[in-house]
Fold:
Amino acid sequence: MKCDFLIVGSGFAGSVLAERIANELRKDVIVIEKRNHIGGNSYDEFDDNGILIHKYGPHIFHTNDKNIVDYLSQFTDWYKYEHRVLAFSKGDYYPVPINRTTINKVFNKNFNTDEEVKNFLNQICERRNPVLNSEDVIINQVGWELFDKFFRHYTKKQWNLEPKFLSPGVCGRIKVRTNDDDRYFQDKYQIMPKEGFTKIFEKLLDNSRIKLILNKDYKEIIDEINYKYLIYTGPIDYFFDYKFGKLTYRSIHFDFINYNQVSYQPVSVVNYVDPDVPFTRVTEYKKITFQNSSTTTLSFEYPNSNGEPFYPILTDENLQRLKFYMDLALKEKNLILCGRLAEFKYYDMHQVIGRALNLYNSLIYKL
Structure:
């Protein structure tokens, strides 16, 4: 086999780059995917009950970048969707991210203005300087009680590490609010593809210049392929045969259950923040897709360390090991790394797409 670009992985990183290279540069591309489907972790499909589910947990599209929306709009129409999440603790629901409603409910207050909430948070927060980890980030904003209730145990279940052992960015991604905005995201564009994400991937890869190989580890056939450039989106430690040891990732086991009832929970996603509940969150997919159905399908998430790598665990040890791998990658001729696993970064979906588009724009000047 022969191609200009060999791409490992068919998630957003690999598929966007494949589309750009094939359609704009008119170069031949081979995409190798180890799973039996395209789309990476953004893959969705209809279950036996006709409900569109996200096989690897809820993927919610949001961005402030119009260029990313314009690009994807070539491959899908959209519907508006504003994501809302509740935390379930000791028998009651609370809005997350923490907002004015959350604070009023937890502390039995009746704050009506941002200023009142800010003043209260200033009273209960614990100033930590320097901010070295995720515990410091949250304690700095909301103090111990809210940290312990909503972050400490949930984070331990999710990462199998206390927040004090995780980098500041892990728990600091979603900001605490002083108003009553209960949307999970505040981005300008909060939309979902009308036909689902898999349809986007099918259109991205629909080009005669793109050859797709499924169910195959790239290492099994790479010696049979004559290529000029290699775009790699898989785990960087695997690429280098774990030369400096394994980077650690968090995985998730999903239990999908269909219930013979119209609705199961108040919103699409509920986080279970108490330590005695083994799962972290429950997603009710029809509340994302707005499908009409007499039944409803949910996924229960159980984090673990043994499955597919989903989330890079950003500890000091991992980041030091990553540096060794990145230095090695720089010595590789015509190797391009892109994506959450290849770069060991906690990218959201829109960030991966933006990263791929930027990589393409820089790539065209090198050819």
